[in-house]
């Protein structure tokens, strides 16, 4: 994730782009947006994903993934979240070339079994931070790191700036362009897809977290980002989608632009020739990542929304934001930020994963006793996890505590729409040829007559 000041003045200046005109407020369309298609499940239902990243960067080898427990899934589901982006590391999976750790695969499977138990859908994210262990982080193995002897100077107080060290930038170039590393990365993904293609919890695969690359002399950062996305990331994603598809025909492939999209820079990614692609940008603001408060007058959310919707509209793919959430949640304007961010995410996306579900301070969603940290509770809303039909409108009025969903029930396939309800007392009512079932606390099912126009209203009891 993007956790830094991006402190250098020249770098910050390079990120400045014109602010887009404000985007008019409109109802959440349940992930369809203006010409943006919805994410769907195997039964053709329209999905909305809401959840959190699950990360254990501290443990590796025999202790890998030990920081993620069944409690994470139980607590997430209890708050209404049915989605997790699970961080996995290539350096743990393939510590030496061609030798894949069966123990690590078993550890991943154990985590996925917990997800299945609590009905949480999972995307496997091949995570990298500052490329990998060669630079004191996690991700691409040292044996796959080539620097041509270029220098690397650590910047422990300015994490993201390390991406601009010559050795790190050159390592990305070799990963993208060296034929043997291309094959190794594709084999790694085929191993993962073959192992987990039939696991009920697995929704899809995120081939690489926050990819970066090598700037050329004379380029500013937005120009470099668009070139890297066009010339290096696009062919890489096509290669990796092919590798995944050789093992798993059904899983979604989540493709990320560079993190520069967070500054309102439209991506340069091209077409990925696969029928199940999801655009998966991250939603971070440089100033807020450095500890600043949200500035509503800056137009950042509007600029970001205008930028990230261009690619899915052009290539007709769903959007799921893979990471978001500021460090300092209790600053004066953060309540407004969460309300406006949730409204924006609902306008165009099929869902999101916040950073991160952990117990404590910093970016953690909840504190040590499992209570939401300040303003994080605003992420827990009623929503339709799966709609058996075509969504016409969907919106949540947080002030009134009222969620409304309108949809046309499908004439074939599943008739069951699933609603997720956060803790509390909720009344669920329908209009149209449909009935409400309450299978368990925090969940409601709507069973509709094929072809019916259904309105669902969920109201908080006062």
Which terms summarize this structure?
alpha/beta, six-stranded antiparallel beta sheet, globular, seven-stranded parallel beta sheet, 462 residues, single chain, 11 helices
Structure description:
This protein is α/β, with parallel strands linked by helices and 462 residues long. The protein has eleven helices and 19 strands. Helix 5 packs across helix 6 (179-196). The longest helix has 27 residues, at 221-247. The relative contact order is 0.15.
Chain-wise SSE layout:
Blueprint: H1 9-14, E1 39-40, E2 46-47, E3 49-54, H2 70-78, E4 83-88, H3 90-93, H4 102-117, E5 121-126, H5 166-177, H6 179-196, E6 202-206, H7 221-247, E7 252-255, E8 277-279, E9 282-283, H8 286-289, H9 300-308, H10 310-315, E10 323-324, H11 334-348, E11 351-354, E12 383-387, E13 389-397, E14 402-409, E15 416-420, E16 426-431, E17 434-440, E18 443-448, E19 453-460
Parallel strand pairs: 3-4, 3-11, 4-5, 5-6, 6-7, 7-8, 9-10
Antiparallel strand pairs: 1-2, 2-12, 12-15, 13-14, 14-19, 15-18, 16-19, 17-18
Helix-strand pattern: HEEEHEHHEHHEHEEEHHHEHEEEEEEEEE
Q: State the distance separating the first and last CA atoms.
A: 38 Å
Radius of gyration, CA atoms, in whole angstroms: 21 Å
Number of strands: 19
**Structural shape:** globular
- Mean pLDDT equals 92
Number of helices: 11
**SSE-based structural type:** alpha/beta
Low-confidence stretches: 2-33
């Amino acid at each position: 994730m993007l956790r830094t000041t991006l402190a250098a003045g020249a770098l910050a200046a390079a990120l400045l782009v014109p602010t887009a005109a404000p985007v008019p407020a409109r109802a959440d369309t349940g992930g369809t947006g203006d010409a943006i298609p919805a994410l769907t499940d195997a039964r053709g239902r329209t999905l909305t994903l809401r959840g959190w990243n699950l990360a254990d960067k501290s443990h590796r080898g025999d202790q890998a993934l030990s920081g993620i427990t069944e409690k994470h899934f139980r607590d997430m589901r209890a708050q209404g979240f049915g989605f997790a982006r699970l961080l996995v590391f290539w350096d743990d999976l393939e510590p030496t070339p061609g030798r894949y750790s069966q123990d690590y695969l078993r550890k991943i499977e154990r985590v996925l079994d917990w997800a299945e138990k609590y009905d949480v859908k999972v995307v496997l994210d091949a995570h990298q931070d500052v490329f990998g262990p060669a630079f004191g982080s996690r991700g691409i193995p040292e044996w796959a790191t080539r620097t041509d002897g270029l220098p690397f100077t650590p910047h422990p107080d300015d994490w993201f700036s390390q991406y601009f060290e010559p050795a790190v930038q050159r390592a990305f170039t070799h990963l993208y362009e060296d034929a043997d590393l291309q094959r190794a990365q594709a084999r790694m993904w085929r191993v993962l897809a073959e192992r987990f293609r039939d696991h009920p919890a697995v929704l899809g695969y995120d081939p690489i977290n926050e990819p970066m690359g090598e700037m050329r002399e004379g380029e500013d950062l937005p120009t470099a980002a668009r070139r890297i996305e066009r010339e290096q990331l696009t062919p890489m994603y096509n290669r990796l989608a092919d590798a995944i598809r050789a093992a798993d025909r059904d899983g979604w492939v989540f493709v990320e632009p560079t993190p520069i999209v967070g500054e309102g820079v439209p991506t340069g990614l091209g077409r990925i020739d696969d029928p199940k692609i999801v655009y998966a940008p991250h939603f971070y603001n440089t100033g807020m990542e450095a500890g600043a408060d949200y500035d509503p007058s800056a137009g950042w959310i509007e600029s970001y929304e205008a930028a990230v919707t261009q690619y899915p509209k052009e290539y007709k793919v769903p959007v799921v934001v893979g990471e978001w959430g500021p460090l300092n949640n209790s600053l004066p304007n953060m309540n407004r930020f969460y309300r406006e961010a949730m409204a924006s995410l609902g306008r165009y996306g099929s869902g999101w994963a916040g950073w991160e579900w952990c117990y404590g301070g910093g970016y953690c969603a909840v504190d040590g006793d499992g209570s939401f940290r300040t303003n994080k509770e605003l992420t827990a809303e009623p929503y339709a996890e799966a709609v058996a039909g075509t969504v016409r409108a969907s919106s949540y009025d947080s002030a009134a505590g009222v969620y409304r969903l309108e949809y046309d029930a499908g004439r074939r396939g599943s008739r069951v729409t699933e609603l997720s309800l956060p803790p509390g007392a909720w009344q669920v009512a329908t209009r149209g040829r449909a009935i409400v079932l309450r299978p368990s606390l925090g969940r409601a099912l709507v069973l509709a007559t094929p072809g019916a126009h259904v309105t669902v209203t969920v109201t908080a009891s006062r």
